[in-house]
Amino acid sequence: MWSELAKDAGGIALFVLWLVLPLAYVVVLGRRYVRLAREAAHEAVWANDEIQAVLEDLQDDEGPDEGDPPTVPTARTESTWELPRVQPPERAGKL
Q1: d(Cα 45, Cα 51) in Å, to the nearest integer?
Q2: Distance between CA atoms of 32 and 21, rounded to whole angstroms?
Q3: CA distance 18 to 24
Q4: Which of 20, 24, 42 shows the shortest CA–CA distance to 32?
């Protein structure tokens, strides 16, 4: 009789463990991922605030004057590279 009762208690304990263990696992992992996501969001907001401050400083410092005409790039500027001339081959075709 005691052996049957022990089997039943062991089976019930395993069943309860089978029900509780996945739930506990999900809760523990969920809390960890929520904490990591909160830290990442905080860092992203902080970085965005810094970027916005830098952009505002750049806009204040380097804004074009109202009277300056817009600059239009031309075909020949200082950044144009000149390619070296290549001599055509003396002979082309079959030898």
Answers
A1: 10
A2: 17
A3: 11
A4: 24
Instruction: Provide the b/e sequence for 32-50 (b: ≥16 CB within 10 Å).
Output: eeeeeeeeeeeeeeeeeee
**Domain residues of the chain, as ranges?**
23-61
Length of the chain: 95
pTM exceeding 0.70: no
Give the three-state DSSP class for 45.
helix
For residue range 72-91, list pLDDT tens digits in order. 666 666 556 666 677 877 77
Residue-wise pLDDT tens digits, 54-69: 888 887 766 556 677 7
Q: Which residue shows structure tokens 């990591």? A: 36
Which backbone phi and psi does 93 adopt, to 5 degrees? 105, -160
